[in-house]
Amino acid sequence: xxxxxxxxxxxxxxVKIARDGLEEHRIARRANAVLLLDKRWSFAEVAEAFYxxxxxxxxxxxxxxxxxxxxxVLFDLNGGACALSPLQIDELRAxxxxxxxxxxxxxxxFILERxxxxxxxxxxxxxxxxxxxDWKKPESVPGKIDVETQQKxxxxxxxxxxxxxPDEAVVYVDAVHPTNQSKPAGRWLPRGQRCALPTAxxxxxxxxxxxxxxxxxxxxxxxxxxxxxxxxxxxxxxLEQTHSTMSRIHVxxxxxxxxxxxxxxxxxxxxxxxxxxxxxxSYCPHLNPIERLWKVMHENVTHxxxxxxxxxxxxxxxxxxxxxxxxxxxxxSSTITDNFxxxxxxxxxxxx
Length: 352
Known about the structure:
- It is built from 13 helices and 5 strands.
- The chain is α/β, with parallel strands linked by helices.
- The chain folds into 3 domains: 1-81, no CATH class; 83-136; 147-182 and 200-347, Nucleotidyltransferase, domain 5.
- A 5-stranded mixed β-sheet has the order 3-2-1-4-5, with helices on both faces.
- Strand 4 (248-253), helix 10 (262-268) and strand 5 (275-279) form a beta-alpha-beta unit.
- The protein starts with 7 loop residues before the first helix and ends in a 20-residue tail after the last helix.
């Protein structure tokens, strides 16, 4: 075996695989073996180091020589290597980039029909990962979202936060309607073990109109029959009571019709009102931090939990929002923040 038969690029790829703690162990062994052969170890020496026979080492090297790093990664237990040529891999990559396949079945069918090769599911996953693809769900992007409007709002919000007087506060308002239904969420399990989440009967839901102050973690949560103009006024009155020492309470909220109702406008025009409204741009829930509070609520109260009685469900939700969040806000403050970002649809490939 000649010394240093590897190219710089191949050596770098193999070293990366060998050092990657997340890489499958047998793949890392193959990479290590070829690297040792490149250092002029004999087949017998490599075989002894890995407690395998030298024919296996030779098969690994042949796979690498025939198909490069790709073939070494996809080398199966029966000694077969990836039969896709570099040109075929380029064709697969181009097809997948255009089609955005939804499953390994679809990918396998394309490879079988186009190249006459049959891959296992695990082989397809490794192949797609190796050629630069990850399986992920699309993000939701509102169709009418506007970049300039978002940036103006973020700038105005930042200016307001930076210019607040000592007797001014900022709170964020929104409504949420949690339903008493089991919400399965992923978790680590011993291999081969299955788990299940009991389902709750009924579809009873809470109607909550709430607010949060990010400076203190204080929440105001109204449990109402209906979220409407009257619940909006009741929430505003509660905010003026809990912020009794503040001359101004800046309230950020969405453009729900009840927030613009005439009765709400009439209440706002009464003498002595200390609420100042700031409306979040339409189609931009990501610009209201209270949405992050709702996400944290679900993660802590509804995911992988089943409440046999609706009252137990309601008590758990309200206790978390009214007591747990304010008392332990230091634990949640890194998640429930006003660290906004602009969503630009042009940065996404929009699916038809």
